[in-house]
Write a structure and sequence with these properties.
With about 500 residues, the chain is of the alpha/beta class. The protein contains 22 helices and 13 strands.
């Protein structure tokens, strides 16, 4: 080619550059196939960092004017390392305040939360300190409860835990070993007279609520004894009159018990308060009193040694961990929910003497107190519980056990901290996702959760998939499979 032709070609190229649309000046340069031999192409496909980033520049003059980048050669990286560039993924779902739960499966960051700390935060992070723990047998809910709501909070100042332990393990509750690790024997209940007694008329129950609180408890226990059949207005009036007469008769003397109420239920018609009633009304009141007396008398006979005396001296809260072992009480009948209801009221009275402490109260098999008449009593005391620093932790297998529209369901929905472990049945997984406002695909995820993994949510924050992490000692003390291991000859 002549010099003249070459000069014309250069001018054409320069003219094409200056007339190029401005957006094309920022487009990545395209190398022709002739510029890249087979060896170079293979090297770029397998190890792209062998050629520096600056090799992308085909016009050095344009590069100096800032049309091309990068200014420095790139560095080799990997997909795993590049995750740090996506802050939406690696951002920690929670802060560092509270108790360590485990780690976020997605970002591998620490998950920490404590309902008491969150409730007392400024601004307040949760409106209720209550907690719900759901999950199938063997999914890890008991290990989480023991670790996060018993062992770790006890390390904090002015913190304690009270447990209603329903799971049988070798003739005693599964929290027995943990209680002894803190220097206390579990408080055992039995129906054969060998266990602890709880008095429905204990002055500790009436502390702060007076006779109203005792009447509420007697009403609940009578209803439990009738398989959730409520007392009518005549029966309630007869019971109230008998309770009032019993307290008056004993005055400053011996603490009355439930057995002291029974005779007064037969004497309601003779009380001066009802002298103005018609003979028919007096007779109706008398019949109502007898009906309640027969109900409570049957209860005392069936559960002698449990409710027929003064509260045992071993029922106390001076330790940081108190375990009510109800594992030997029958699943059917009023014994378990009655003890939970009495213990709940007794606990509230005891907390009035210990202001400044925060208490986690764990209800294993929590449907006993959330699915029956006990739920109305527990929910009525929610505001009082918050004022006394009480965080109720309800642990149960599935939410479908709780009747829709019941006080128990309202109490569950008010909980602001939720841990949902595996729910194998589709209807149970859907219930959890719907009740706690999880994402659209959460139900399918709940069905497939691995042991030790759960979906965690507090307040209105998005849910997080969490892997619960335990120390070797925590793993040992929270292990509930030793019976199966012993049968299989497996060493722990």
């Amino acid at each position: 080619m002549s010099n003249h032709a070459t000069a014309n070609a250069d001018r054409t190229t320069a003219k094409a550059w200056h007339t190029m649309p401005i957006l094309r000046a920022f487009a990545p340069p395209t190398e022709t196939a002739a510029q890249i031999d087979d060896a170079t192409r293979e090297a770029r496909e397998i190890v792209p960092w062998t050629l520096p980033g600056s090799q992308l520049r085909t016009k050095l003059g344009a590069a100096r004017r800032g049309f091309y980048g990068p200014a420095l050669p790139g560095a080799p990286t990997s997909t795993r390392q590049a995750e740090i560039l996506n802050t939406a993924i690696i951002g920690a779902p929670t802060g560092t305040n509270g108790v360590v739960i485990g780690r976020d499966v997605l970002s591998r960051t620490m998950i920490a939360h404590d309902p008491v700390t969150a409730y007392n935060a400024t601004p307040r992070l949760v409106s209720s300190p209550n907690v719900v723990v759901l999950g199938d047998v063997g999914s890890g809910k008991s290990s989480l409860t023991k670790t996060v709501y018993v062992i770790r909070p006890l390390l904090l100042n002015k913190r304690r835990s009270v447990v209603f332990d329903k799971k049988d393990r070798g003739g005693e509750g599964e929290y027995a070993e943990l209680a002894r690790a803190y220097g206390h024997e579990p408080i055992k209940f039995a129906i054969d007279g060998t266990g602890t007694r709880l008095n429905l008329l204990d002055p500790m129950i009436s502390r702060g609520t007076g006779m109203t609180g005792q009447m509420q408890l007697l009403n609940v226990v009578a209803r439990l004894a009738r398989e959730d059949q409520a007392l009518n207005e005549w029966e309630e009036e007869a019971l109230r009159a008998a309770l009032r007469r019993t307290i008056t008769d004993h005055g400053q003397g011996r603490i009355p018990t439930l057995a002291d109420v029974l005779p007064n239920l037969s004497r309601v018609a003779d009380m001066d308060d009802y002298a103005s009633l018609s003979p028919q009304a007096v007779d109706a009141l008398h019949q109502a009193g007898l009906s309640v007396r027969f109900t409570l008398n049957t209860l005392l006979q069936d559960y002698a040694g449990l409710l027929d005396g003064e509260t045992s001296s071993d029922v106390d809260l001076r330790g940081k961990l108190t375990v009510f072992d109800i594992s030997q009480l029958p699943d059917q009948g009023p014994a378990v929910p009655a003890v939970m209801a009495i213990g709940h009221m007794w606990l509230l009275g005891r907390l009035r003497d210990d202001r400044g402490w925060a208490t986690n109260c764990i209800y294993e098999e929590g449907w006993h107190i959330a699915a029956g008449p006990s739920a109305q009593l527990a929910r009525a005391n929610q505001k009082l519980s918050r004022g006394l620093g009480l965080s109720n932790v309800f642990v149960f297998h599935k939410g479908t056990d709780i009747p829709a529209g019941s006080p128990g369901m309202a109490m569950i929905q008010e909980a602001q901290t939720v841990h949902v472990h595996r729910q194998t049945l589709r209807e149970d997984a859907l219930w959890a996702a719907r009740t706690f406002a999880f994402g659209a695909d959460a139900a399918a995820q709940i069905e497939r959760l691995a042991d030790g993994h759960h979906i965690f949510k507090y307040s209105s924050r998005p849910e997080t998939l969490v892997q619960h992490i335990r120390s070797p000692w925590e793993t040992q003390i929270t292990d509930t499979d030793e019976a199966f291991k012993a049968a299989a000859g497996i060493q722990g």
